[in-house]
User: Fold this.
Amino acid sequence: MSLVVDEHRQYLEDRVRISAFRQAINDTVKPGDVVLDLGSGTGILGLLACQAGAKRVYSIDGGGMAQLARDVALANHFDDRVTVLKGMSTRTVLPEPVDLVVADQIGRFGFEAGVLEYFADAKRRFLKPSGRTIPARIDLWVALVEHSAQWKKVDFWSHHPAGFGFEPARKIAENTGYPVHLQARQLLGDPANAVSLDALAHGAKSITFCKTIQVKRAGTLHGIGGWFSAQLSANVEMSNSPLAQRRIKRRNVFFPIAQPVAVAPGDSVTLSFSILPQDTIVTWKVEVHSSRGGEQGVNPIARFTHSTLKGMLISREDLAHTNPDSIPVMSIWGKARQTVLQLCDGKHTLRQIEDGVLLAHPDLFPTRTEAAVFAAEVITRYGE
Assistant:
């Protein structure tokens, strides 16, 4: 079984998630509506829209799931109403405007999977002026977290694994957001609603917020937890919160701090976040203020700054390519790709393109099979 398909099995097994979308779609879809399903996967949300009375559904998926979605629509006798389009929604053209845009492209922290970018594009190009979206709003939540097991995975690199020093890896580890399944008992205080994002109104390229959270119980602060709640419709909310009574199975995110800090009731922690959704870059600053032995909040007892930008694996060579004054030169593989694209002129067959690549780049492709695989990969991505 494809692991991609197995990932979607897990989505369909999440009864809380499916139930929430079913109810929200039933509440929102009107008979005769035209619906757009972004990142459709198996096409489940489009099928639910058809059941709710949608006249037509356009399902867009950029991966290999597109054909499976077509087959699923056919198997459920909705192929006359469901049109599956393979590609990125931001590069797709629809033949008509839509009444509703629906998507489950919601990340662990609410923004990572591209839902804001996709909705902004859909609003501009596809959605009718009176159109709706599911979700309508996404709230980002943060909390103080005690999680020694996860923090030890960060600190692992400080203890000379295999007898060698790995401090450079430690710097990357502490600037990474980790997928975790948080529990209520790991929270050191009440969570804070960090920011509320209107799915239609939010077009900003950055999200910033600053929150101060009071510590409610004694413990050790290892990092910051993040999750989301999504308002799917007027009466339906979906969340991966560790405090939710009906919690979906999507994991949360854990942002570590460089060193654990002992905290007690009455202490406060100020969190400052800056998020670039399109680049999935998160910067988090943490200041811990003690209520003991002095005026509360004046001088922090600990201060940390982290960013996933510092956690990226970027080589010097790749970094050099971002210099505006650098003079790039096409690689031999780039030239091979260029050969394929030049032959995609509406005149050459696939076999002729394979012959052309093999003839132009014999050192790259020892066999015709290798040339054929390369040409197919390029054409699948860039051809029509």
Notes: The radius of gyration is 25 Å. The CA atoms of residues 23 and 236 lie 7 Å apart. The chain has three domains: 3-104, 138-317, 332-382. The first strand starts at residue 34 and ends at 38.
